[in-house]
Amino acid sequence: MIWMSWAAMLISLAPVTTAEQPVDPYPQNDANAGAQPFDGQAMWRAFHEADGVSRIVDEAIDLSQSDPHISDIFRNRDLVRLRRTLKEQFCYILNGGCHYSGRTMQAAHKDMGIQTADMGALVEHLQAAMRHEHISYRAQNRLLAKLAPMKRTVVKQ
Length: 157
What we know:
Elements: H1 2-13, H2 42-46, H3 49-66, H4 71-74, H5 79-93, H6 105-108, H7 116-132, H8 137-147, H9 151-154
């Protein structure tokens, strides 16, 4: 019994990973974001700029991780990197002045086995996060329209 409480204490003291895992080098280019940015600053402002994008990405990932239908997609993944690159991607597409340093959509999702239903659940979580951030439906739909063509390279048939 003492051993179990000692082990539990050690586990609770284990550090949470807050650093990105190293990756093999790859060509970095804004084109890797998978979509061209919107013109002007209206969409960036509609998403409440960096703070809003950060809250939306964090909530969408949290909802996806806790969804038993798709949580396996996120298991053993570098979630620190995922959060950073998604925030960069959205900032770039929303014309917030960021550059996207992530991989291409095809390379980033290679061998993940994402299916159409998985993509649907991910979009639902993103929509929920945008609603919680009080993003107008028009702005939500405009962003989703930019992201939708990426389904062809992310979903495996």
